[in-house]
Write a structure and sequence with these properties.
single chain, 359 residues, alpha/beta, Aspartate Aminotransferase, domain 1, 2 domains, seven-stranded mixed β-sheet, four-stranded antiparallel β-sheet, 12 helices, binds pyridoxal-5'-phosphate
Length: 359
């Protein structure tokens, strides 16, 4: 006899994060996890340092000051916001609270792996619906809905493709779903989007009582290591998450860091402008080298090299120069690699590497 978890746990493939080490290479440039290009905001570092002096105190369990700062920054009602230990934590709680044995969760084929992990953990059946052109296929998702469907996850812009689903499509998806199905709009890359008509999900989260928008401080705000995410939605959904989350789920230093990041003058504008400029340059270099770059509204590019062998060869070229990209075999895209837009020097290293590459 031995201890065994529930059978659904055994079907979970553990999350494999972006690589961060290369044996024998001195200088590593990690472009595998879509982290912000400029490190943490200085005001966040200062806030973390100050928070260290009060590390013996429990955090504010309601993250009141942080929710107020988020509300002020984005013009949202703090009462409709919940903070999490990364948006990962909120994804997990949503699946446990709204899914569970006998239910189904729908995501798009290449959507964020955490939905699959959290959904299975909850005991739900997770249906992966084929995408079209790197985008969630709204008709196919609606066709996959059955009586047991409880949650639909949508990443917009999409990871790992970088593609943006038009606002009208997002609304059509919500309109086509039953009222008792929670729509989760994960907008982790919202700050990088340049498409003027884009709405990160705020409008739907305002207009409906069954939609939640998820956001993170892990990307443009440069605080992935502090684990801060947040959700915005109808009071009943926020109340549900407040019931089930750990009472002190966001560390005090993390709350302080996020407040500091929001106060850093010009941080988002600078990061977004840099990203738009260098995303175009890096994309042009891959295109000039004969590869297919998916249009991106994020801080990463997905490049299709035509075959798994060609992708491996490019990966080897990059690794020889200390550049770590993200292989997408785990996403069922072995012919593709994903590369994060780093700082100017890092981007130039990628451009030089792909320009010198011979397949
Ligand atoms: C990076 C990312 C997140 C952020 O997760 P955190 O737990 O907040 O770090 C969420 N969703 C997607 C699709 C992502 O790519």
């Amino acid at each position: 006899m031995t201890v065994l978890p529930r059978p659904s746990i055994l079907s979970i493939e553990p999350y494999v994060g972006g690589e961060s080490k290369l044996p024998g290479v001195n200088r590593i440039v990690k472009l595998s996890s879509n982290e912000g290009a400029f490190g943490p905001p200085p005001a966040a570092v200062e806030a973390i340092t100050q928070a260290a002096l009060k590390a013996h105190r429990y955090p504010d369990g309601g993250a009141t000051a942080l929710r107020e700062a988020i509300g002020a920054h984005w013009g949202l009602d703090p009462a409709r916001i919940v903070c999490g230990n990364g948006s990962d934590e909120l994804i997990g709680h949503l699946c446990l609270a709204y899914g569970g044995e006998g239910t189904e969760i729908i995501m798009s084929a290449y959507g964020f792996m955490m939905y699959d992990i959290a959904g299975r953990y909850a005991g739900s059946r997770v249906l992966k619906v084929a995408e079209r052109g790197g985008l969630a296929d709204v008709d196919a998702m609606l066709a996959a809905v059955g009586p047991r469907t409880r949650i639909v996850f949508l990443t917009n812009p999409n990871n790992p493709t970088g593609a943006l689903l038009p606002e009208a499509e997002m609304r059509r998806l919500r309109a086509g779903l039953r009222g008792d199905i929670l729509l989760v709009i994960d907008s982790a890359y919202a700050e990088y989007v340049t498409e003027p008509s884009y709405d990160p999900g705020t409008a739907l989260a305002d207009a409906t009582d069954n939609t939640i928008m998820l956001r993170t401080f892990s990307k443009i705000f440069g605080l992935g290591g502090m684990r801060i995410g947040w959700g915005y939605g109808a009071p009943a959904i926020i109340e549900t998450l407040n019931r089930v989350r750990g009472p002190f789920n966001v560390a005090s230093a993390s709350q302080a860091a996020a407040i500091g990041a929001l106060a850093e003058p010009g941080w988002v504008a600078k990061g977004a402008a840099h990203n738009t400029e260098w995303r175009a340059k890096v994309a042009a270099a891959f295109t000039a080298a004969g590869f297919t770059v998916a249009p991106s509204q994020t801080n990463f590019l997905m490049v299709d090299f035509g075959s798994p062998e060609a992708a491996k060869a490019v990966d080897a070229t990059m690794k020889a120069r200390g550049l770590i990209l993200r292989g997408l075999g785990g996403y069922g895209l072995p012919a593709c690699l994903r590369v994060t837009i780093g700082n100017a020097e890092e981007c130039q290293m990628v451009i030089d590497a792909i320009t010198a590459h011979r397949g």
